């Protein structure tokens, strides 16, 4: 199970911003610190702003800042806003559709593991992430 690029960048940006939650950061600053391609970074920042995770201000001292309490932003919320949780429904063996009438050998293991992963994502906030680093 891999997150798509947008989700990975979103998690990276938000966890970095959470460490400095009271600082406004420009896109140029984030680009230099996180090494995310600038045009992609701008797109991700726009999406994070539209989703309400960050607030943007224009002008000379403008930039981006976390707009919510970092302890109330859960990883599952970030994933839902980028790729959705449907990505967890994919078959771990690579089948397009799970043949429920004849499931693969990994079906039960993946179902249990998937439930555990989703539970971790539902219960882990950005605040939790920065405490563990």
Average of the residue pLDDT scores: 88
Order of helices and strands: HHHEEHHH
With strands numbered from the N-terminus, the spatial order across the biggest sheet is: 1-2
Q: Low-confidence spans: pLDDT under 50, at least 5 residues? A: none
Shape: elongated
Coarse structural class: mainly alpha
CATH architecture: Orthogonal Bundle
Q: Can you give the helix content as a percent range? A: 40-55%
What's a quick, concise take on this entry?
With 133 residues, this protein is mainly alpha-helical. The protein is 51% helix and 6% strand.
Secondary structure layout plus pairing:
Layout: H1 5-19, H2 27-34, H3 38-50, E1 54-57, E2 63-66, H4 75-82, H5 107-123, H6 126-132
Helix pairs in contact: 1-3, 1-4, 1-6, 2-3
What does this protein look like?
This protein has one domain: Winged helix-like DNA-binding domain superfamily/Winged helix DNA-binding domain (Arc Repressor Mutant, subunit A). It is elongated, with a radius of gyration of 17 Å. A hairpin with a 5-residue loop joins β1 and β2. It has a two-stranded antiparallel sheet with strand order 1-2. Helices cover 51% and strands 6% of the residues. The model has no long low-confidence stretch (mean pLDDT 88). The two termini are 23 Å apart. It is built from six helices and two strands.
Descriptors:
6 helices, mainly alpha, 133 residues, 51% helix, Arc Repressor Mutant, subunit A, two-stranded antiparallel ribbon
């Amino acid at each position: 199970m891999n997150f798509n690029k947008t989700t990975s960048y979103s998690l990276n940006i938000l966890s970095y911003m959470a460490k400095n939650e009271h600082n406004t950061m420009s896109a140029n600053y984030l680009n230099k610190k996180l090494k995310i391609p600038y045009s992609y970074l701008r797109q991700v920042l726009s999406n994070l702003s539209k989703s309400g995770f960050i607030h943007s201000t224009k002008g000379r001292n403008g930039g981006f800042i976390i707009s919510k309490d970092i302890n109330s932003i859960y990883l599952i919320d970030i994933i839902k806003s980028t790729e959705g949780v449907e990505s967890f429904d994919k078959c771990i063996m690579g089948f397009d559709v799970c043949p429920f009438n004849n499931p693969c050998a990994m079906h039960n293991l993946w179902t249990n593991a998937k439930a555990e992963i989703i539970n971790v994502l539902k219960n882990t906030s950005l605040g939790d992430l920065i405490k563990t680093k």
